[in-house]
Amino acid sequence: MENSPLDSILDIRFGFFDFGPWDEKLLSIEGKKVSLNDIEHRILRPIWRDARLHYVLNCASLGCPNQQPVAFSAENIESLLDSGARDFINHSRGLRFVEDDELVLSKIYYWYGVDFGNDEKELLQHLMIHANPRTKKRLE
To answer: Which has the closest alpha carbon to 93: 116, 58, 66, 112?
Structure first.
C-alpha cells in the first residue's frame, strides 16, 4: 500500500487543505469511482437503514467505535453489528453520566440522529436495546 505505514489516517493527504481520504474517489465499484464517504452515506446508510452501521463504520477518530477485528461476511454481519453496538454503548466513548444524572452522548448521535430515531425517546430506546443492565437502568 502506497501510504503505509501510517501513524494516522489524517496523514493521507491529497492537497494542502485536505483532511484525510474520505472524499477522495479512490475506489471503483462497477466502473464508477467512489469515495469512502460515498460508500457510507450514499450506499450503506440509505440501503441498509440500520443504526448499528455506525458502530462498525470507523472514521478513525478517538470518539468513534472500534474497528472490528475480522472481515464482514454474510455469516457474521449480524453478530458484528450487535457486538459493535453493545461495545460502544457500554463504553464511555459512546455514553456516560456526569454528576450522576447528566447523560453525555458521543457526537455520532448528534451527527446521525435521524438514523437512531425520530426523537430523544426513540434514541433512548435504541440505546437501551444494547445497554448492559446497569446502563439500561440509568437510562430508564
So the answer is: 66
Longest dimension (CA), the chain: 53
The single residue listed with the C-alpha cell 440522529 is: 113
The DSSP code sequence of 68-128 is PSS---TTTHHHHHHHHHHHHHTSTTTEEEETTTEEEE-THHHHTHHHH-SSHHHHHHHHH
Check: CB of residue 33 under 8 Å from CB of residue 27: yes
Query: Is the pTM higher than 0.70?
Result: yes
For 6-28, the pLDDT digits (tens) are: 676 666 767 776 666 778 898 89
Answer yes or no: are the C-beta atoms of 104 and 97 closer than 8 Å. yes
Query: Does residue 123 contact residue 113 with C-beta atoms inside 8 Å?
Result: yes
Cell (9 digits) for 46: 440509505
Cβ-defined contacts of 3-8 (< 8 Å, 24+): 8/60
What SS3 state is found at 105? strand
